[in-house]
Amino acid sequence: MSDSILEEIFIKRSQQKKKTSPLNYKERWFVLTQEKIAYYDYDPDKGKRKGLRGSVDLEKIKCVETVQPEPNAPQERIQKPRRSLKAMSLTKNNSSVFALPFLPQIIYDEGPLYIFAKSEDIRNQWIKKLKEMVSFNKDLLQKYHPCYWMDGVWLCCQQEVKQAMGCKVLDNKNGKNKTPFGLKSETINNQTSEKPVRPLPPQPPEPAAPSVGMTVIAEYPYTPMTPQDLELRKDEEYTILEMSDPNWWRARDKYGAEGYIPSNYVVEAENGLERFDWYCKNMNRSQAEKLLKTENKDGGFLVRDSSKAGKYTVSLFTKGGAETGGSCRHYNICTTPSGQFYLAEKHNFSSIPELINYHQHNAAGMVSRLKYIVTNRARPPSTAGLGYGVWEIDPRHLTFIKELGTGQFGVVKYGKWQGQHDVAIKMIKEGSMSEEEFIEEAKIMMKLRHENLVQLYGVCTKQRPIYIVTEFLSNGCLLTYLREGLKQHPTPVQLLEMCKDVSEGMAYLETQQYIHRDLAARNCLVDGNGTIKVTDFGLSRYVLDDEYTSSAGSKFPVRWSPPEVLLYCKFSSKSDIWAYGVLMWEVYTLGRLPYERLNNTEIVEQVSRGLRLYRPQLANEKVYSIMTSCWFDKADERPTFEQLAVTVQDVLYDLQ
Ligand code: ADP
Ligand code: MG
C-alpha cells in the first residue's frame, strides 16, 4: 500500500446519492496517499482505524473548495452539522473538538464529498495539499457550487439537478486549471503559468493563394445557367481570367470560350488530391461509413481528411461474414521521417496517388485491396446563386413538387429549378416580412457560401407572395432528425460531428461578421449524407411579428438567449455562441426542449441569476465543458466559433 501523506479524523456527510435519502454524519478516518483519499471506520474508544468504507481516486477529483453557508442561511442550517457533530462526538471525545464546522468539499465524478474538519488549520492544510495534488487533473471545474447540495437542490443557486454546472466561477484556487480554451482559463484564473493543455494538431500547409492566370481542373461538370456562364467539363483544364467575385470566376477553356464558372467547382491543377475521384475532402468518419455501406461493395474505398489535421485516412468496406452485413475499416496514411507515405509497413511511396494505386492491386496488410472507388462527387456542391450575377429568379423556371412544412413566414415547398436542380422555396406569407429591407439584404446573403450554411440561391420579388429560393436538404430539420430521424442510437462521434458542422458554418459567419440571431436546432437542416447546415441566418430581423421580435414575446427564442439579450437585447457573435451551447445541448439530449419545466418568464429570471442547463447523459465532461463555456455570464469570456471549431475537432480526435 502507498504511504500516507496526511491522516485525519473527519466527520463525513453522507452523499445523498438519491434525492430522498436522509442525511447522516459519520466519523471517519481519512488517509491521503499519492493515488487516493481513503476513509475508514473509526473506533473512538480504541482510537483505531477499522474497515475501509470508501475512497476517491485523486485523478477523478475536479475541484477542492470550502463550503460556504448559503445566502440568508437559516440558523438551523448553520447549526445542522454542528448538532450532528455533537451527537457523533458523544461517543467519547471532547465534544468541543468538533464545535465548529470547517467544511472542505471535494468534487469528483459522483458529486461533492463534504467533510468537517476539527479546526480551520486542519481544513486549510488538507485543502492546500489536495489542490496541489490535483492541479494537473483533467476536467477541473471552472465553476462550482459554493453551498451545499441538500435534499435535491443546490442551496446557492436553487438548481435541482445535481450535475448542474456550478454557479460561481473559481478564482485562482483550483490548481492550474485546464479548460478547453487555454486562454479563457487564464483569464478566469488570472494565471499565466504553463498550462498542461495538449498542443493543437499541426495545421495543414496553407495552399498557395489562387491567382489570375493559374490553371485549374474541373472537379465537377457545370451547365451554364446564364449566357454569361461557361460550361465546365469534368477533369478538363481552364485558365482563370478574373477573380473579383469570390464565388464566380471568369475563365477560359481550351477552345478559347470565356465565361463565369462557380469557383468551388474547380481546383488548382497543381493541387494534389482533389483531382482524384477517390478523394472525398470534407467527409468525416460517419459519413464515409454511411456512403460505403450504401454502396455495399466489397473492397469499396475512399480517401478522406483524417480527424488529425493535415493527415489522410483510407476508409475501406468489406463484406466479410455475410451475416454481418459488412464492416468499415479506417487506415491512417502514415509518413516516414523522410516524407514517404505508407499504409502497411515496408511499402513506401513518394505520393499518396502512387500509394493508392499500389493498394488498388495489393491488399498488403489490409483486409482487402482497394477494389472500387466510392465517391461523393455524384452530386456537385451548391453554387452561390443560380448563375453568375443572378439573384432574381424567374418563377416560371420553378416547378413545385411537394410541401415540406410551414414556418414563421408560411409554407416551404420542395421543387426543381429549370426542371433539374433541387431547390427549397419559401413562399413568404404577405404581411409576415419587411420585404423591401429583406430584398436588399438578400444580395449580401447570396454571397455567403460555406458547406455548412444552407445556400441562398435567389429570390422572386416581382410577384406576391415573394419567394426565397434556397438549397434543398433531403433530411429536413435537425430538430426533427434528432427526435425521430436517427435510425439507430447515435454514436458519440456522430453527435460531435453534428456539432462540428454547425461550429464550422458559424465560424464562417463570424469571419463575415454576420450575426445569426436565431441559432437553434430548428434552424439547422440535414442533407442526404448527414451533414448539418445552418439556415435562416439574419432572417429574424425581417420578421413582422411582435411575438417573435420582442424579447417579451411568446415566440422569442428565450431558451437560446444569453442574459445580455434577455435583459438589453444585445445581439453579437457572442450571443450566437450562447445559442450554440444550447444547440449542442439539444443535440446531446436528442432534441429535448431546453429548460423543459420552466416558462419564458421563469427562464429570464433564473438564467440571469446563474441557472444553466444540466449535463445531458450522452455528453461526457469534456463535451459538457464546451457547452458550459458558451454560457459564461460575461459575453467576452465565451470562446469564438473559431476556437470552438478547433476544440470540437480536438475532442473528436480523442474519440477516434
Ligand atoms: P421559417 O424559417 O420560415 O420559420 P422553416 O425554415 O422552419 O421556416 O421551414 C419549415 C420547415 O420546412 C422546416 O422545418 C423544414 O422541415 C422544411 N424546410 C425548410 N427549408 C428547407 C430546406 N432548405 N430543405 C429541406 N427542408 C426544408
Ligand atoms: Mg426557421
Automatic annotation (TrEMBL):
Q: What class of enzyme is it?
A: transferase
Which parts of the sequence are annotated with region: Disordered? 178-210
**Per UniProt, which keywords does this protein have?**
ATP-binding, Kinase, Lipoprotein, Metal-binding, Myristate, Nucleotide-binding, Phosphoprotein, SH2 domain, SH3 domain, Transferase, Tyrosine-protein kinase, Zinc, Zinc-finger
Cite the SH3 domain residue spans from the record. Answer: 211-271
- Which part of the chain is the SH2 domain? 278-374
Q: Does the keyword Phosphoprotein apply?
A: yes
The record's catalysed reaction(s) read: L-tyrosyl-[protein] + ATP = O-phospho-L-tyrosyl-[protein] + ADP + H(+)
Family statement: Belongs to the protein kinase superfamily. Tyr protein kinase family.
Query: Under which name does UniProt file this protein?
Result: Tyrosine-protein kinase
Record organism: Sparus aurata
Q: State the gene name recorded for this protein.
A: BTK
